[in-house]
Amino acid sequence: MQGDIHFISGLPRAGSTLLSAILRQNPRFRAGMTGPVGSLVDGMLRSMSMSNETAIFISDEQRRELVKAIFSTYYADLPKGHVVFDTNRNWCARLPLVTELFPRAKVICCVRHIPWILDSVERLIRRNKYQPSGIFNFEPSGTVYSRVDGLAGPNGMVGFAWNALREAFCSEQSACLLALTYETLTTQPERAIAAVYEFIGEKPFAHDFQNIEFDAEEFDRRIGTPGLHKVGRRVESPGRKTVLPGDLWRKYENDAFWSDPARNPNQVRVV
């Protein structure tokens, strides 16, 4: 790769698309919603594992170069001196691999109060009442309780990301992490973006927080969840009441471990 690479990871519905929409205003930056690189890396690792009888002929050095080739091929058109931010919630669970391949890379972890994440998904489901969502395998049945259980399970959209984030916070590679809260990004965008620039070692850029552009309408339509990646034109904090039943809210309201110094043993910076 001719340019530099950093990663956006963390929790779903926590501002990663908004962050990318802001960063891409900088003509030297490339950023977007979750892309295919993470799944391509997982597919390559699986294909080179011992589940493939011919994998005995592949050395670890070859495995490393093949995985790195996914990045260099996918971002082959990145001009020299430019910066790419690859988004995938899986990167928090792949820190040993990421930091070996790209020692200078930083990982921006978008985080948000867990009940509001669950609330955000539930609102999308209720808004698109005539379109079953791919988030729940296009199954039209279910209740808010079954949907939240599915999201928060170990392999669920929220549960997996939350576990991966906890793993990253406690890992030997945690120095490459910056936790960016949804609350700061939406109420103090100038402070949030300044912290990102400082963390990755880039010179400040004058972003326009009143004119944000991002369109993934076709992608969202194909997974039966219109609005999943919709970003409002202005950066603002949504003021609203939750649609979650009280018992569900209380079940997850203490899960924001990043805000508790006792649960952040490596002192990952939180903005």
How does this model look, in words?
It is a single chain. The chain has 271 residues and is an alpha/beta fold. It has one domain: 3-Layer(aba) Sandwich (Rossmann fold), CATH 3.40.50. The chain has 11 helices and 6 strands. Strands 2-3-1-4-5-6 form a 6-stranded parallel sheet, with helices on both faces. The radius of gyration is 19 Å and the shape is globular. The two termini are 30 Å apart. The model has no long low-confidence stretch (mean pLDDT 94). It comes from Bradyrhizobium stylosanthis.
User: Separation of termini?
Assistant: 30 Å
**What would the principal axes of the Cα set say about the shape?**
globular
The fourth-level CATH homologous superfamily is P-loop containing nucleotide triphosphate hydrolases
Element string (H = helix, E = strand): EHEHHEHEHHHEHHHHE
Trace the largest sheet across and list its strands: 2-3-1-4-5-6
Q: How many structural units, i.e. domains?
A: 1
Per CATH, the class reads Alpha Beta
Tally of DSSP β-strands = 6
| Number of separate helices | 11
Low-confidence stretches: none
What percentage of amino acids are in beta strands?
5-15%
| CATH 2nd-level architecture | 3-Layer(aba) Sandwich
Protein name: Sulfotransferase
Keywords: Transferase
InterPro entries: P-loop_NTPase (IPR027417)
Pfam families: Sulfotransfer_3
